[in-house]
Design goal:
The complex is a heterodimer of chains A (111) and B (112).
Chain A lengths: L2 E4 L4 E4 L4 E3 L1 E4 L5 E7 L5 E7 L5 E4 L2 E4 L9 E3 L8 E8 L6 E2 L3 E6 L1
Parallel strand pairs in A: 2-12
Antiparallel strand pairs in A: 1-4, 3-9, 5-6, 5-10, 7-8, 8-9, 10-11, 10-12
Chain B lengths: L4 E3 L2 E4 L5 E6 L6 E7 L6 E7 L2 E5 L7 E4 L6 E5 L8 E8 L6 E2 L3 E5 L1
The chains are: A mainly beta (111), B mainly beta (112).
């Protein structure tokens, strides 16, 4: 089955800093990869996704590239805002109803 | 709002009581999932429905847990004889075929 390992938090950055949250996966086959974001007291919201190798997912200034050779899907943003403070989850889905999530990385952005 | 909805959003109960949660998926989505999320962890798969058929259950789903999706639309998750270890966020997600899963806001259960 799949497994996902992501960078432990918490991560604290100043506004306009560069963000990287590392995510690596192990999987049989070629899973689709996702980043979800969770704000306090809420469910998970899809942030971006990539379905095959070398695809880049992007949304709201966040980007992640599906790297088959390194089995990675690192999340990046060039300039974070206070409103980006949340918990970020990396996930791998091999479409066999076996979607696995990382443990989550809490990001706090200070003004 | 046409997203996934869950009810209630919060539930506080005493140990030993039964609780039931409801999930209403996005209307055309044929697949529905239940997950459990504990503090500081990612969601863990509990069970999955395709239309009204429950096709998969995790080992996390003890005999005290039961889920139904009687008409292939909304689903319920019941926990009998709740224990303090059942305290968690219960998340529902739906999808159309192999497409992306969309999550509801969750039901936070606290067992005293």
């Amino acid at each position: 089955g799949n497994s996902v390992t992501q960078m432990e938090g918490p991560v604290t950055l100043s506004e306009e800093a560069f963000l990287t949250i590392n995510c690596t996966y192990t999987a049989t086959g070629y899973p689709s990869l996702f980043w979800y974001v969770q704000y306090p007291g809420e469910g998970l919201q899809l942030l971006l996704k990539a379905t095959k190798a070398d695809d880049k997912g992007s949304n709201k200034g966040f980007e992640a590239t599906y790297r088959k050779e390194t089995t990675s899907f690192h999340l990046e943003k060039g300039s974070v805002q206070v409103s980006d403070s949340a918990v970020y989850f990396c996930a791998a889905d091999n479409h066999n109803n076996d979607m696995r999530f990382g443990a989550g990385t809490r990001l706090t952005v200070k003004p | 709002d046409t997203g996934v909805s869950q009810d209630p959003r919060h539930k506080i109960t005493k140990r030993g009581q039964n609780v039931t949660f409801r999930c209403d998926p996005i209307s055309e989505h044929n697949r529905l999932y239940w997950y459990r999320q504990t503090l500081g962890q990612g969601p863990e798969f509990l069970t999955y429905f395709q239309n009204e058929a429950q096709l998969e259950k995790s080992r996390l789903l003890s005999d005290r847990f039961s889920a139904e999706r009687p008409k292939g639309s909304f689903s319920t998750l019941e926990i009998q004889r709740t224990e303090q270890g059942d305290s968690a966020m219960y998340l529902c997600a739906s999808r159309l075929g192999p497409d992306t899963q969309y999550f509801g806001p969750g039901t936070r259960l606290t067992v005293l």
